[in-house]
């Protein structure tokens, strides 16, 4: 699929669908800006939920035992790849980009059955 920009009116609905569809996926977050360059923020934390509150203008991600907040998000892009990886890019009011990569958790090898 192609990268698509979501309209602000669609953010809340997308967050509900993403919570249902991507629950448990491993999330990595990278923060990118001209001032700090590219900095890893979160590595492989399971997605518990995602929400957007238009009143406080905050996008919230619940990841394992942490909460990641994006204050004043201005743009939201989604890229859903055929192999199951999903990338989101959120641009905040200061122009800082937060790139979220969601992947299926690694599969554990099946246990050998006693024979």
Molecular structure report:
This protein has one helix at residues 11-22, and strands at residues 4-6, 26-33, 37-53, 58-63, 66-71, 73-80, 86-92, 97-103. It is mainly beta. The protein has one domain (4-103): Protein Yojf, Chain: A, CATH 2.70.180. Strands 1-6-7-8-2-3-4-5 form an eight-stranded antiparallel β-sheet. The protein starts with a strand and ends in a 12-residue tail after the last strand. The model has no long low-confidence stretch (mean pLDDT 88).
- CATH hierarchy class name: Mainly Beta
Stretches with pLDDT under 50, minimum 5 residues: none
Average per-residue pLDDT, rounded, comes to 88
Tell me the total number of β-strands: 8
Q: Helical content, roughly?
A: 10-25%
Give the end-to-end Cα distance, rounded to a whole number of Å.
Answer: 45 Å
**Major sheet: size, sense and barrel closure?**
8 strands, antiparallel
Return the string of H and E elements.
EHEEEEEEE
Count of discrete alpha- or pi-helical segments spanning 4 or more residues: 1
Task: Give the C-alpha Rg.
Answer: 16 Å
Strand content is: over 45%
**Helix-and-strand structural type:** mainly beta
What descriptive keywords fit this protein?
115 residues, mainly beta, Protein Yojf, Chain: A, eight-stranded antiparallel beta sheet, 8 strands, 10% helix, globular
Quick overview:
With 115 residues, the chain is mainly β.
List the helices and strands and how they pair.
Layout: E1 4-6, H1 11-22, E2 26-33, E3 37-53, E4 58-63, E5 66-71, E6 73-80, E7 86-92, E8 97-103
Antiparallel strand pairs: 1-6, 2-3, 2-8, 3-4, 4-5, 6-7, 7-8
């Amino acid at each position: 699929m192609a990268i698509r920009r979501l309209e602000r009116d669609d953010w809340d609905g997308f967050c509900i669908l993403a919570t249902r569809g991507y629950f448990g996926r491993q999330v990595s977050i990278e923060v990118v800006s001209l001032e700090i360059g590219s900095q890893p923020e979160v590595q492989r934390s399971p997605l518990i939920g995602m929400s957007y509150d238009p009143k406080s203008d905050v996008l919230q991600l619940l990841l394992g035992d942490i909460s990641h907040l994006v204050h004043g998000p201005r743009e939201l892009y989604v890229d859903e790849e055929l192999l199951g990886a999903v990338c989101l890019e959120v641009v905040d009011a200061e122009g800082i980009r937060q790139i979220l990569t969601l992947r299926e958790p690694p599969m554990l090898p099946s246990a050998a059955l006693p024979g």
